[in-house]
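Quick one - first record:
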Amino acid sequence: MRCLWSLILLSLLSFAHAQTQTPRPNKQLTIEAIFSPGGITGRAPEAIRWSPDQTRFSYILRDDSGEHGELWSVDATIGEKKLLVTADRLALLAPSVEKLKDDREKDRITRYHVAPYQWARDSKHLLFAPHGQLWLYDLATGTAVQISAAPEPSRDPKFSPDGKTLAYVREHNLYVQSVAGNSLKQLTKDKDLNLLNGEVDWVYAEELSVRSNYFWSPDGRKIAFLQMDETHVPTYPITDWMPVHPKVDEEKYPKAGDSNPVVRLGIVDSSGGKLKWLSLRAKSEDEKDIYIPRFGWLDPNTLWAEILNRTQDQMDLYFVDAGSGKSRKVLTESIPDGWVNVNDDFTVLASKGQFLWTSWRDGHNHIYLYSYDRQSPLSSEAKLERQVTSGDFETLGVQAVNQASDIVYFNCNKDDPRQQQIYSVKLDGTGLQRVSREDGFHDPTFDDNGKHYVDNYSSQLLPPRFSACDPHGTCRSFFESRSVDEFGLFPIKQMEFKAEDGTILYGYLLRSSSAPAETKVPLIVYIYGGPAGQTVTDKWADDERLFHQLLAQHGFAIFSVDNHGTPGRDRKFQTAIRHQYGAIELRDQLSALDQLLAANPQLDPQRVAIWGWSNGGSMTLYSLTHSDRFRAGVSVAPVTDWHNYDSIYTERYLGLPAQNPKVYSDSSMTKVANKLHGALLLAHGTEDDNVHFQNSIQMTDALIRAGKQFRFMPYPNKTHGIEGPEYRTHLFHMIEDHFEHELK
C-alpha cells in the first residue's frame, strides 16, 4: 500500500510539473473561436480518392468558410502536388455543403461521407454530381460536359469496369447510360415509393454503415442490387416549424420491435431485361426478418452475401450462382452471448481462391484466412486455413492486401487500447510488424494494391496532419493543421482505474495547475459510455475537447473514463452490457470517480457535474436519476426511452422488446423522472432524424409531472449534431453558464 501511494504521489508531482511547463497562451481560447467556420485549426483535406491507375491520389482543400476550395492531386511516388480543378470551377462542380439550407441533407452528405466526385476508369476524367446532376470533367482540357439531363437527382453513380457506361439511382430505380450520353436504360421500373432499388434507407446507412446497395459484375455484364421494401416500416413526422404553415416530412424509421424493411437480392443484365430474384435461405427459414448488410461479386459468375438474423447474434455467408440463382451457405459466424459486428473486412483474394474474415471467436477481434474452390465456389463450404493475427489486442479494420507479396495491412490497438496504429502481417501469420511510427491515431486510405497510403495522423494535442506514405515507413507531409501552441493547451493526464471485477478502465484528467493548493476544484465528468465510441483516445477530438480546455482555463477539472461496453476492448468487456442499459456503465463510472477523488484531494467531491451527447446524454440522465453524486448535468440529444430508438442499434444490445420487456422498462429515464438529482440542462434539435425530438418532449413531460425544475433548450430545425457556428456557440455558452452557476 505504501508503494502504491508513493506511485500516486510521484504521478501527481510529475503531472503538476508537466503543467507548469505549459506555455502561457498568446491567443485566448473562446467558444466563438472554437466554433467559428474552420475552427482554430482550419479545414482538413476532404474526399481523398485514389486514381484507378494507382499513381496518385486527389483531395479537396477548402478555406475556413468552406465555400472556396480547390481539387489537388499528389504523386504517390515523389509527393509532387498538382492543381487539378481551380476554385472557380470547383464552386460549380462540387459546391460547398455550407451553402445548403436543409440541415438534414447537409447532415446526410457529411455524416455518410457522400463523395462530391470520383475518378473515371481512364484516370483522365473526373465525375462530379452537383445537386444530383452528372458532369464529366476532362483533366487535359479543363472542360466539363453534363451527361445527365433529367431534373431529378441521380445518386450513387458508378462506372462500369470498362469505363464506358455509368449506373446510378434515380427516384428509387436503377438506370444505366453510356458515358458518351447516346443511350439510357431504366433497369428497374417500380413506381411504388416504398420500394428502393439499389438505394440505401436510413437505418441501414446509420446502423450498418451501408453506403451502396448495387454493384457491377467484374465483366460489366450484370448488376446485383438490393431491393428494400419499406411498406410496413412506420414513419416519424419531422416538422419544419419555421414557415407560417409548418411542413412535415414523414421519415421511414423502424423503432425497436417495429417492422424492418423487407430485403431481397436481385440481378439484372446491364443491357436491360428481366429481373432475377435470389432466394438465399431454405424455404423453411424466414426470409422477411433478416438483414443483408453486405454483398458483392466473388467472380463474374458468383455473388457473395452476408445474412444477419434479427437478433444479430448469427451471420451466414452465402455464395450464389448468378446464372441459376442457386445458393450455398459457406460459413457461419455465431456469438450467442453477444452480437456479430458488421464491417467491411471481408476481402476476396480472387486469384488465390481465398478471402479474409474477421471474428471475435477467440475473445478478441482478429483476422482469419479461408479458402474456397475457385472453379466451383458452391461445391463445398469455405475452409479455414489459419488465424492470421492473434494476441491481446483488437484488429480495427482490414485496410489493404498486397497480393504480390501476400501482406495484409490493417488497423489495430496492439500497443495501447487508446491508440490506432497501422500494422502489417503476412497471409501465413508471420511477420507481424508496426507500419506507422508516431504514437497516437492513424487513419489510412490505401491504394488498391497496398503499395501506398494517405495517413491522417493526430494525437491528443496535435491536430490532423496528412502525409503520403509507403508501407516501408517513408512519409511526406502534404497538409498540416494550424498550430494550437499559442492557445496554451493543458496536457491531458492518462489514467488507469479498476472496475469492481478488476478490469482496467482507461480515463483522463484535464485541469489547470494554477489554483492554490488549498483551493477545491469543481469537477466535470464527460461521458459517452456506449458501444459506438470511446472518449479516452489519443486522438485530436476537436470541438468538445477544445471546449474542455476552455473549461480547464476557467478553473474546472474535466474527467472522462470508458466503462464496460465501450469499443476497442475484448469481447467480454464489450458484451458485458448486453440486455441491460445503464447499471454496469454507471457502476464503472462511479468506481473510477471514487478512485480519482481519492488520488486527487484537490478535486471537490461536493461539486461534481456530468454531461454528454447522444448516448452520453442518455447516460447523463441515467446518472442523475440513479445516483446522487452529481450536482448538475447537461444532456444533449438523449434517448430517454429505448422504445423510441431504431431497431438495429437497440435490439443489438437490448434484444427484442417483446422478449425482454423488463430490460426496456428498467432502462427508461421517463419512468424515474421523480428521482432526478441535481440541476439539469436538456437540449435537443427539433429536426433530429437520429435521436428524435420526441425523446426530450417525453422527458420534459415526465419531469413536469414529477414536479422537477429543469432547463430545456430546443434548437429549431437542427439535427443530431446541432451544427452551425451560431447554434453551437449558443449551446456551448449555455453549457458553460450552467456549470459556472451550479458549481461555482
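second record:
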Amino acid sequence: MSQNHPDTLTHHAMLVAWGQFAQSIGLIREMESVPLHQKKVEHSPQTKILEFLVANLAGLKYLQELSKSAHPIDQDQAVAKAWLQSGWADYSGVSRTLSGLDQKEAEQIAHVLDRITQPILAEEVMQALQHTGKLVYDGDLTARPVSNTSTTYPGVAYGHMSDGLQLGYQVAMVSLHSPTYGRFWLSAVSHPGDTVSCTETEALVRSAETKSGYRPLRRSDLLRLRIQALETEYQERQKQIQESLQTREGLRARLFKTQEQLSEQPKTLAQLEAQYQERQRRERPYSALTKARQRLSMLERRLGRMEKKLAKLEKLLRDYQEQLLLHQAEVQQLQQRLGQFEEDNRTNPFPIQAIFRLDAGFGTRQNVAFLIEMGYEAYTKPYCDWLTPRLKREVEQQDRVWTRVGGNAEMVAWPARQLTDFPYPLDIALERFYTGQTQRYGTLLHFGTDPVTTNLPDWFHRYNARQLIEAGIKEGKNVFEMHHLKVRSAPAIFLQEQLAVFAANFVRWSARWLSDQCLQLPAGWQNTAQPKVKEQVKVAAHTSAWVSWQDQGCLLMFTDQSLFAGWSLSAKKEWAVQLPLPFSKNAHF
C-alpha cells in the first residue's frame, strides 16, 4: 500500500474510535486485571468479556453476529488493535466464557465498570449541584420478555409485559439528569417477571444514593410527628379493643342467660300442655299455654340474633386485633427508620437537595411517604384509584376552573392538601386529557419546595420530563438490543444488563471526548446530551473507514462508500475529568 494511504481498512469505524476511548479511560487495563477462573486457549476470558462489551456497543441483536454477518467483527483486526487485543474469538467461544462465569466474577466485572464510571459521575453530580442546586433522579421498571415456551432462562416468571402476560424479567432502572450527557444511567437490577413497581421504590432510592455518593437530609422531624400520631392512634385502637371485649363479655352473659331460659321453657310448655289436656281446656290467644309457646319462639329468635351479633362482634374484634398488630409493626418499623435517619443525618457532612420522579406504579401511599421522609422532593402519581375518583367527584361538585397545560391536557390543583389517608400535606393536581370524543383523567402528586401549583404548565412538563428515562429504556431495547437477551445463565444476564447501561453512558462520554479533539463531527454528534446514539451505534459502528495509526491514537477517514464520506475523526488516547473537591465527598462515597 502506498505511504499516502492509511494503514488499515475497518468496516466498524466507531468501534475503532471507541476502542481508543476505552484506552483513554483505562477500561481495557481494568477489565484485563479481573481474575477469571477460566483458562486461556487462544484468547483469554478477559478478551471475550471485552468482545461481549463490543457486541453491546455495536448493537448486535444476537451474539452470533460477531462471527456471522456481512463484515464479522471478530475478523476486523483494526477493531482488535484499537481494543489492544491480538484478535477476537469466535462467537461460540464468547458464549462459552459467558456461560462459565460465576456470579462473583460477573460482579467483579461490574465493579470495574463502576470504578471507570465513578469519576465521570462525580463530575456530573457536582456540575448538576452547581447549575441547579439539586440532583434529579428518575426511576422505572421495564420488562425483558423471553419466549413463553423457554425453559432455559433462570429465575423467570410470568408478569405483565407490554400488552399482556408473558414470561421474562423485570429490570429496575435509575438514571440521573446530567448537565453534560442528558441522561446518566446509574443502575439496572433484574428481578423475576412477576415483580411489580410498588415493591422497588426503596431499592431504587438506595441505589441512586449509593451510586452518586450523596444524599439529602432525612426529614426525621416529620417522621417523628408521624410516629407520635400513630402512637396516639394505637392507644385509641387499644381502647376500641377493650370496649369491644367488655361488650363481648356482656353479650356472652346475656347469651348464657337466654340459653338457660330456653333450656327451661320446653319443660314449662310441656307441663302446661299436659295440664290443658288433662283438664280439657281450650288454648286461647291470650292463655298461659299460648304465651308459653310465644315465649319459646321469642327466646329462640333472641338466641339466634345474639349468636349472630356475637359472631359479628368476634370477627370485628379479630379485625381490630389484627389491625393493632399491623399498627404496632408499622410503629416499630418507623421507629427503626427514625433511628437510621438520625444516624444518616449525623454522618452526612455534605447534604444535598434532590428530586425523585416516579410513575404511578410506584405511587402507593407508603412509597410516597417514604420518599418524603428520605428527604426528597417527590414528583409522582398515585397508585391505581387511590385519589383520582374522589378528585373527579370533588371537581364536578365545585365546578372548578381548568388550566390548559398541553395540547390536549388541562389541570386543576390544590396546594398543600392534607388528606385523611396520608400523613403529610401534598400538592395535588387532577389532569384531564382529550382523546377524540373521550376524556381520560390522571393525578399528579408533589411534595417539596417548588411552588408547583402557581404554574401548572411548568408542573405538567416537569413531571413529564421523566420521559427521559422512558426514552432511555426504549434506546436500550431498540439500539443496544435488550429486547434480545444474548445469554442464558444468571451471571451472564446480570453482566449483560450492566454492560448495556454502561454502553449507553460510554457512547455519550465518547461524544464529549471526540468533540474536545475533533474540529468537525457529523451533524448532531457534538450534542453530548443527544449525540444521535442510534446513528453512531447502528450506522457508524458498521460503516467503513481507513485507519491511520498514530503514537497517541489514530485518524479515522470514512470511505467514499460510507454514509459519512468526507468526514474524519481524530481519536487521541487522552481525556480528563474534573474531580470534586474532597470536602464535598460524602462519608460513604
